[in-house]
Each structure stands twice: as C-alpha cells, then as structure tokens.
C-alpha cells in the first residue's frame, strides 16, 4: 500500500528511483524479508517514510488506524536506524544514497535549518566520494548507472541549495565543482540494468517532465544570481540586466516542456504552474529593490502589482485543482515560487488608496480572499510570518476595503477575532502564543533518542530560536522590508515550501 502511494504521490515529483527494478526488490523483500540486504532495508524504509509524509491525516487513519504523526515517527526512526545499520557514512552503494536523499527530502520539516544544512552537507560529501559530482558518461560507466547517478545528483543539488539558503550560509554546491549532466528525458521503461547503449532521449513529455522543468528553472536562477555580480539572493542591481536572461528561461521552458503538457494530466498541470510562476517570481524579485529603495515609479509599481496578482492566480488555480490532491505534500503551504512576496505586495498596495481604481481594489480583495480560503494555515498557524501577514491584511482592509464590504468576509472576521484574543491575552499577561522564528509547522513530535554513534549524532537537532516582536507596522516601502525577508526565509526553513 505504501509502495503504491510512493509511486503515485512522491516519485513523479522526486524522480530518484527506477521503478521496474525497485519494484522487484520490494516484492522480494515483502515475500522473503530475511533475503533483504541492509541497503534494501534503507531504501524500503525511506520509501515508506516518504509515502506516509505524502499522506493526509484522514488517509492515515482510514488505511492504517493510526495518526499520521505516529506513523511518521515510526518510519522516521526505522529509516534512521536502517541507515546507521548500513554504515551510510562509508557507503558507495547507489541504493543507500537513494535512501538518504529520499529520507532528507521531507526532513526539512522536522529539523531546524542549521541541523538540516549539516545533514545535506553530509549527503553532498558522500555523493562526492562516490563521484556523483562527475558525469558518469565521462567516467565510462554503464548507461543505466549514468542515468541513476544523474537523477540522484539533480535531487541533491536543490536540496543542498535550499538548506544552505535557509541556514544563512549562502549557496550550496558551486557550479565549478561539478560537471554532472542533467538526466535524459526518458521514461523508466527506456532504461534498465545491464543495458549497453545510451538511451535515445525522447522529445515531449515523459515521467521526468516535472523534475527536468524544475532543473531548468534552477539553472537560470543560478545564472541570474551570477549575473548580478555578487548581489544577495533576493537583491538585483538593475532588472534590465536580468530581463534578457529571464526571457531566455521563459522560451526554453515553453519550448522544451510546457508546449508538451496536457492540462488534464495532474503532473503536467503542476509543471505548468511551477514553470510559469517561477518566471514571474524572477521578474518580481528583480524589481522589488526599487520598491524598498523608494525609487519605483507609478508605472513600475503597477507592473509589480499585476505580476503579483498573476502569481496569486496561479497559486489559487493549482490549489483548487482536485486532481492535485495526491501532490498536496509538495504544494501545501504556498508552494508557488513568489507567493509570499506577491501576497505581501498586493496587501501593501491595497493600503494605498491612490494606486488602484475601485474595480481593481475589489478584484484584488477577491484574490486575497481566495488565498485565505485555499490556505487555512494563514488563519490557523501561530507562526510569526502568518501573524504578521494577518496584521497587514487588517491594516489594508481598514485603509482601503472593497466597495461592497458588507457582509464582512469570513477571513476578515476571523482575523479580527484572533487579533482581539491576542490583545486580551497580552492584557492579562498570558501571551503564551507569541511567535518565534523556530515555530514548528508539523505535528510530529521530537525524535526519541537511541544509542549514540557517529552516525546517530548527525540526526539530533539543536534549536537556535529567537523571539520576534511584530508589534511594529510592516511595509515594503520601509526598511522593515528586511524583516519580511527574514520572516519568509524562516517559514521556508521550517518546511513551508518543497
């Protein structure tokens, strides 16, 4: 059952395995458990762990009669122990590396950013020792091995990059330290162990389409960063310098991937949303510095507002797509690149009564309401970012409500109620829900300790929490915009985005 869940919900997003050969191992292990090697055990538990992670609470209860948190804790422990038993720190086995990557992908939800960065760093070092940073074709390896090594490496690259950014250490692996080529655009049935000829790359959509489109986006993000001559990850000196590169990325995504997507296919629909929102997010990020520096013109501000609305529309459309429910583990909590920036900019713009016409104001509030309807965590979470966005929403509503604000929308009523409750708690000296930057977003409890070893020590987290007073007003036109960046970065570090 968990294997089927992994194939349907996880594998299309994280193409690390070769399903036909892995299925043989799963069948053998289920029929003859004693025949499973330590490497097989690692991979099995990593697959089951990720499968449970991809499931909703109701699904876990219905299928297994246990809570998701309980199942997650069980398989998390089992996978860790299997990795330790297999001496993963010394491994040169591809299957153990697959298990480690599959284990780490959902683990950003359970470890603080610093610990997670250490763990991905360990995975990078193991990969380098195995030579995954060098393209297998140049090393003369068999065609099947070449493709599997590439698949692993191209999952590890963004994983380490995200961990590096969220821990505040900058970028991950530098481009000049590896030469591994992107995996070929082929289906699993086009490759197999023992094959002697390089598979012919397919033109059009394959099982790899989501991963390859994401890889394409990552390549251009990296190039855009380099073109900014050392500017920070979210700062660009002049968007006119980067716009040609963004247009090039847009053309490549459209020609190589989007044109072959069938919107009826959930994975293709998700791929379209990911690719187009990434391009829009690039354009937003290149323009935000002018807003912060208060050098933005009225025309540029309107352009930014339209780009932000485009991101929100994509987010809402994808989240409302019922066939994407199996990918909710990935799309949960503002999955579209640029969603936070967009929502914050739209709310900030709504506070300015001189920017939008009444019709535009009404349309913008309708989009904000859709975001709140799609993302219940905006009202339910006690995290610093969610509280700050809620406060900004109320200020925008008070300053510039829609022309027809009666009856009051449910999300505004709820925000008023939450705000009133917080003020009452403060008045009574019981502000126990004050947000901190290390607020957790998942229900899984801390992992219970087990016998110490060098490998086990890698899996224990440490917390470097810091309080945040969000009593001050926030606006993208002020120096407080840096606090918005910190809030967004922290939320992502806690697993708000995959």
UniProtKB/TrEMBL annotation:
Protein's GO biological process: DNA-templated transcription
Span list, region Disordered: 423-442
GO cellular component, one term: nucleus
CDD domains hit by this protein: fungal_TF_MHR
GO molecular function per UniProt: DNA binding; zinc ion binding
Taxonomic superkingdom: Eukaryota
Membrane-spanning intervals of the chain: none
Alphabetized UniProt keyword annotations: Nucleus
Pfam families the record matches: Fungal_trans
Compartments where located: Nucleus
UniProt domain Xylanolytic transcriptional activator regulatory: residue ranges: 116-189
Protein name: Xylanolytic transcriptional activator regulatory domain-containing protein
